[in-house]
Amino acid sequence: MRTEQASSETKGVSVKQLAAIDLGPEIEGMAGRLLRIRIVTIEPGGVIGPIHNHIDRPGVVYILQGTITDHRNDVAKDYGPGLGWPEDKNTTHWLENRGTTTAVEISVDIFHQQ
Description:
- This protein has strands at 11-22, 33-53, 59-65, 68-72, 75-79, 84-87, 92-96, 103-112.
- It is mainly β.
- The chain has one domain: Jelly Rolls.
- It is globular, with a radius of gyration of 14 Å.
């Protein structure tokens, strides 16, 4: 599936924040930024979309269960349990669960508090 065929909306996804820390008091120059860890569940047929980037929001993802397909640069790559990927300032992508079982990932990122 090509990147431009990405779903226009997120569906079949639930997100639970497990913990977060305000980095401002911890690291000089990080005021307004938080480090957080979340567990993300994507049901079969679920999508994290639309296509988005990680400019100013770097992170890493680790798959606990199921398979998640990461679409970036017109390439679809499957990740299963024990695998993961980085999401840096050059990442523009969308995700989906093309499988028949629920996929679960751990997502850790730094984001700017609104």
